[in-house]
Design the sequence.
């Protein structure tokens, strides 16, 4: 993803923070963490690692507990779906998940918000 996609990918000059282990993520469960006061969810999709806001903008559901099918994330509370590539909600395109930059170093998953 290029830096020109700033409406989709949020990045600042802040440092990357460790949110979990790659082995944990590859076990099939998303990783939830708090980075600089923001809840973040990290997903493994087709050998790619995607970090989004961890709270559903519809009704504050915990997105790291959601289901991922293909490249769609379904919120566990009300079933609203989000495209993990764009962050756009399939049920209400006015809602968008913030996406964050991910880096892998060894077994560490690092996210910058």
Sequence:
């Amino acid at each position: 993803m290029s830096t020109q996609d700033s409406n989709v990918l949020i990045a600042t000059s802040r440092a990357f923070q460790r949110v979990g282990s790659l082995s944990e993520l590859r076990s099939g469960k998303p990783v939830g963490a708090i980075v600089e006061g923001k809840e973040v969810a990290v997903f493994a999709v087709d050998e790619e690692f995607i970090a989004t806001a961890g709270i559903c903008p519809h009704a504050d559901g915990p997105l790291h507990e959601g289901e991922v099918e293909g490249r769609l994330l379904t919120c566990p509370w009300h079933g609203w779906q989000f495209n993990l590539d764009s962050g756009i909600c399939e049920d209400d395109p006015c809602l968008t998940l913030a996406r964050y930059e991910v880096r892998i170093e060894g077994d560490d998953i690092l996210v910058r918000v």
Remarks:
- The radius of gyration is 13 Å.
